[in-house]
Amino acid sequence: MKRLAFTILFACCMLAVAAQDIRVNYKGAKPTISDFITAYLAHSDDEEDGCDEEAMNGIRYAWERYLKGYTHDENYTFTLDSKNGFAVYESKRNDDDFEHLIIIEMCYWNETDGKHKLFAYNHKSFMNGKYSPGQYDGLTFMRYNNATKKMTYHSDAGVEAFNEKRSVETECSYNLPRSGKDIGITLWERNGKKTQKTLKWNGHGFSY
Hints:
Layout: H1 2-18, E1 22-23, H2 33-46, H3 53-67, E2 76-81, E3 86-95, E4 98-110, E5 116-127, E6 130-131, E7 138-145, E8 150-153, H4 159-165, E9 170-175, E10 183-189, E11 194-201, E12 206-207
Antiparallel strand pairs: 1-8, 2-3, 3-4, 4-5, 5-6, 5-7, 7-8, 9-10, 10-11, 11-12
Helix pairs in contact: 2-3
């Protein structure tokens, strides 16, 4: 029931994104991970419903500081790996005996048709080292069209097929690749056991 509620809320928050294209502005021959991040965060900031405001304020702040050349502060770290098309934001907060950690990863893949790219935004939350998903946790895909220079919400990357097969007794977190092309999966069972799985890149999405 908990997962269903999160899924419904997340789906509602994505409706506005799905309803329109996102223009990706860039200089040079092709967009970089920085261009995708800027376009995605700017578009989300323009949404009027505010459903993602709490989840994305931190990453927006970190990204704005990074673009201005500022270093991160003691509350977060931000790493951009332009060569590998990858970025990660980590924010830690201590509350009494609890350590809260939010990790946001972003990366993209070049599809084999030569006409599209796939951008991913991955949000995950931990408490004292254990996965503790909140309402904004999950993996979002945007498909970029080289011809139109726009990206749209993409729900057919293959991850949904995996989620339909896995047990409802487990929670699932994703690890986007900094090197390689496959997505790592950690299944968290209620008894504390963890299982590692892999979603294989197939040139246009993922296969399990």
